[in-house]
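Many groups now describe folds with learned vocabularies. In that spirit, our science desk offers one protein's residues alongside their backbone shape tokens.
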Amino acid sequence: MATSSDVSVGLAHELTITAIKVGWEPKDFADLAHSEDKARKVLDYLRGLSEIKPIIHAIDCDAAPFVPDSWSVEEHKKGGIFTWDPTKVRLYLSKRQEDGKCILSYELRRELANQPVLNSNVLDYLLRPENQHLIPEDWKGKFVFFWGTVYRRSNVYLCVRCLCWYGARWLWRYGWLDHCLSSHDPAVVRAS
């Protein structure tokens, strides 16, 4: 069995450079450095004793959505089983939003009527603690709306839920359908 003195500093440095090139972050190094179980699994892979397979994040967009207390669902566009892949979604802005102006939510709703908007089932899947790493980093600083589900709050007001980064964590908020939306308020749609 090898000892720590058998691994040169130069070889460890090369490994670090390669890992950074493929996207490793300091947290990834720490996770591996502090977990014998993870290090063992990597070793098994390197020695051909196991495989690495990507996790399929399948979201049932036909399921009934989460409904907060005193809310009801006004509209829920079903979308079958959607396999999460950030390259398969895009953030949609109306022309007015792109031009630095705002658009009233109910006008944007009409504009999105024929767009492949994602519903709140996707939002709730991404918000699970074990899935938050799937949320694209460039969504921070935005309120990303999931227009596939429109709610009625307190039997009066229509609203749409959105995903946002708040302080040091992801959470959901909502926007009324009479509010003005800017370039920081995109809709998430399936990429064509």
Remarks:
- The chain has a mean pLDDT of 93.
